[in-house]
Amino acid sequence: MPHLDVYLNNTWVGQLFQDNKGQLGFSYREEFLGSPKAAPLSRHLPLGTQVFSDEPTRAFFANLLPEGDVLEQTVRRLGIPKENSFALLERMGGDCAGAVSVRLPGHTPATEGVYRRIAGEELGTLLKELPAHPFLADEEGVRLSLAGAQNKLPVFYDGGSFHIPEGGAPSSHILKTAIQKLEGTVGNEAFCMKLARAVGISVPSVDIVELGGEPVYMVERYDRRRSPGDVTLRIHQEDFCQALGVVPALKYEAHGGPGFQDVFHLVREWSTEPLPDTDALLSWALFNFLIGNADAHGKNLSFIYDKGAVRLAPFYDLLSTAAYEGQVNNKFAMRMGKQKDPRYLSVSNLEEFAQQAGIGKRAVFTELKRLADRTETKAKLLIDSFVENGLHRVIALRIDHVITARIAKARHLLQGAK
Fold this sequence. Notes:
The protein has helices at about 30-35, 55-60, 70-80, 85-90, 120-130, 185-200, 240-245, 260-270, 275-290, 345-355, 360-390, 395-415; strands at about 5-10, 10-20, 25-30, 100-105, 115-120, 150-155, 160-165, 175, 205-210, 215-220, 225, 230-235, 235-240, 300-305, 310. The chain contains 12 helices and 15 strands. It is globular, with a radius of gyration of 21 Å.
């Protein structure tokens, strides 16, 4: 039976295999289980000697792969059916999210991995070709995979130059190009992420870089750390769909994916510090309402496994989708209470949301007021700064309009809650 070796950093933890019917399975190595440092790959793949069936195995490993149009283009480029997660991971699993890598037997991380320096002009050309050549998927030596539906490229950035990781060497940053047919998404995402940090929400460092004459969004990976010897180390992580055993096609609540009750319950059950992580999750949910981000689904939340602790990861993929009214679906990815349309959000919906979250309604309204006040103050300053430094004026004005309207809506709700 064909199999692949699964590693956490340099530790061989188990084997992924596929039977003649295309069903996946996973099992931990006995040597790994006997190690004092043994830890589960996933909440849904607990430590033990059992062989996991297709359902829990696929829910974890398929979530390491790209989605949507990016997946479609990748499989066309590689000549692999999109249903064949095993074959895709064989080709692309060298540098996944977190510390996981999937390799052919005998190809250990310790003996592989180099960085190829690349000039900005050449990198700009590669980025422009991403829609037809996602993740450099058919280049010899390049084995990169990131979940998500947007064109992106993992790179190593040393503060002055860019490098393409080859043979499974860990990347340090992710480059994302503009979303086709949506204006100014690079500036939009950078703005929303910087605004989140300004109001006290944990997010990784982001920037806009110009490559090949085009603005490109660059985000530092939160699942990487520099060692004292200046070596990039992977940190294990899993997104909430993996932790809940949900395949990527079902990431939206409307399609059967997790809702707010599920994600808050998961944090309380799985985090080693549930109180601060619950508070952080509440801030994330309310902030997404204020910026008009309707794409806040289960794959945009993750846990970090580091130094024996399980904590909510910094937040990512924050974008004001409401700035593209009429172009994208702006219904909530996770309903607030029974409400899926932010235009009709009511006081009773927020009270229902508080019940979903297992948080007192007074605490929810208090946090909404705090965030609304801070967002209003910080957004004006940040938009002016972005316009001065190249954020397209049209999209800046749209974001400003969305945030102004959402803050007014929040204050109306707060008044009605008294």
